[in-house]
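Trying the structure run again after the queue cleared.
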Amino acid sequence: MRRRAHELAEAMVLDPGNAVEHERLIGRLMIATIERMAHWREVASSLRTLSHASPARDARVERAKRQIAETPGSIVSMDVLARDVGLSRAQFFRLFEGTVGLTPRVYLNMVRIEKAVEQVASRDRSIAAISDELGFSVPAHFSRFFHDHAGSAPSRFRLASTVSDQFETDR
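Done. Tokens:
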């Protein structure tokens, strides 16, 4: 997914007018994302198998997911989050990964990068303000996180999305 995102960002920066190539790369990125996130290949063959394969929902895990989704920048540590939902750290990690299929930290990072990409592309706020809202103590840490997960620096991503928006407007 990172490689696909990097290819797309690079194409948008280096060749902003090539909408056909951008759409092709967006399609490839979407397919990579869907294949990574969807469990469609693992669909159970029967209801009995499905009932045993799907972990029961836990209200504490759902509360943690809601807290992460609503205020990802307020998550100080996984220990504090576990305590906030009434679980020990070990039990929280076990339940969360068993229910969600991801560790709490990976889930938090997934939510943070989704929000970061959306906000950076919208251009409504400064990179520093976005960094602060998502819980990064230093904008440079946010930039490194964004680059590692989205394939380009936030400023380059913003520039590419600006060029893309201008191209769409001109169409």
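The chain has a mean pLDDT of 84. Worth checking whether this holds up in the mutant runs.
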